């Protein structure tokens, strides 16, 4: 790709409902306006469990566990499985489907956009690779995103280090994903319902062998500022772009809050399946 300018928004730390509302708001704003590419970084307070657009909750999500752990559930616009967002850097990319050199397929777009993540890991002196999963005869029934790496997601030392999901609407692409600095496995698995403690324990043990965090990989504590800087420059280098900082107006922030309340905090949306 030739170097182009994208907007960059560091929206800071917000509720799960606000974070998902802002992704939708920015997608709709650009779809009906100038169709500018956007990279956004954000965090979560309180921690959130985001579930895929098609993911089922009945009999699978533990409301008691969510409440006990202070985690709020929110349904994403994008597909995929559940992700616990806590001590992490989250990113979202919004850009037109007809962006120059962007493949028309979802898998192809993953490959291109993952180049920014790849360079971010390299900036932290980590050797990351793009996953190319083997075909399996049996599909995993786990509700947890980080148990398996999908096409062109990032793996380090054979374990998944970043998870992403994507959707397309109104001629735009929305891809967002999680780059965990650390993960509380107990908190994550308390959010789900299991038929027995034995089944839950097996699932939690398996998770540890398939997912990895930045702090495990580097062997030290990392700050969000340090990680954000690495991936900021990683996206610039990997995608051949220049980032220009941008902020929401007061009116835009008000609109995002209204969408968060009406949609992403509602039972009818979050527990619709």
Report on the architecture of this protein.
With 273 residues, the chain is an alpha/beta fold. It has one domain: BirA Bifunctional Protein, domain 2. The strands form two sheets. An eight-stranded mixed β-sheet has the order 7-8-9-10-6-2-1-11, with helices on both faces. Strands 4-3-5 form a three-stranded mixed β-sheet, covered by helices on one side. Helix 1 links the parallel strand 1 and strand 2. The chain is globular. About 2% of the residues have low confidence.
Mean pLDDT: 91
Number of strands: 11
Count of discrete structural domains: 1
Give the percentage of residues in beta strands. Answer: 15-25%
Based on CA atoms alone, the radius of gyration comes out at 18 Å
Name the CATH architecture.
2-Layer Sandwich
CATH names the topology as: BirA Bifunctional Protein, domain 2
Secondary-structure element string: EHEEHEEEHEEEEHHHHEHH
**The biggest beta sheet, please?**
8 strands, mixed
| Overall CATH class | Alpha Beta
* Percent in helix: 25-40%
Based on secondary structure, the structural category is alpha/beta
In the CATH hierarchy, what is the superfamily?
Bira Bifunctional Protein, Domain 2
Distance between termini? 40 Å
Shape: globular
Give unreliable regions as ranges: 136-140
Number of helices: 9
Strand order of the largest sheet: 7-8-9-10-6-2-1-11
Keywords:
three-stranded mixed β-sheet, eight-stranded mixed β-sheet, BirA Bifunctional Protein, domain 2, 25% strand, 273 residues, alpha/beta, 9 helices
């Amino acid at each position: 790709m030739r170097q182009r300018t994208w907007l960059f928004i560091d929206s800071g730390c917000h509720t799960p409902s606000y974070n998902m509302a802002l992704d939708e708001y920015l997608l709709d704003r650009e779809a009906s306006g100038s169709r500018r590419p956007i990279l956004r970084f954000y965090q979560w307070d309180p921690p959130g469990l985001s579930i895929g657009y098609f993911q089922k909750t009945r009999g699978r999500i533990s409301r008691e566990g969510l409440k006990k752990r202070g985690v709020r559930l929110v349904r994403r616009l994008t597909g995929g499985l559940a992700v616990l967002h806590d001590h992490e850097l989250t990113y979202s990319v919004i850009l037109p489907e007809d962006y120059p050199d962007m493949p028309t397929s979802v898998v192809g777009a993953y490959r291109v956009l993952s180049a920014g993540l790849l360079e971010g890991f390299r900036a932290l002196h980590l050797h990351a690779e793009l996953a190319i999963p083997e075909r399996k005869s049996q599909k995993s029934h786990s509700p947890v995103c980080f148990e398996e790496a999908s096409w062109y997601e990032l793996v380090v030392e054979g374990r998944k280090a970043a998870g992403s999901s994507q959707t397309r609407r109104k001629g735009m692409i929305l891809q967002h994903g999680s780059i965990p600095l650390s993960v509380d496995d107990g908190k994550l698995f308390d959010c789900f319902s299991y038929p027995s403690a034995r089944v839950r324990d097996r699932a939690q043990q398996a998770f540890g062998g398939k997912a990895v965090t930045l702090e495990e990989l580097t062997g030290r504590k990392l700050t969000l500022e340090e990680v954000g800087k690495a991936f900021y420059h990683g996206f610039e280098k990997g995608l051949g772009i220049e980032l220009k900082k941008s902020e929401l107006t007061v009116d835009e922030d008000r609109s995002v809050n209204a969408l968060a309340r009406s949609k992403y905090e509602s039972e009818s949306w979050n527990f619709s399946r």
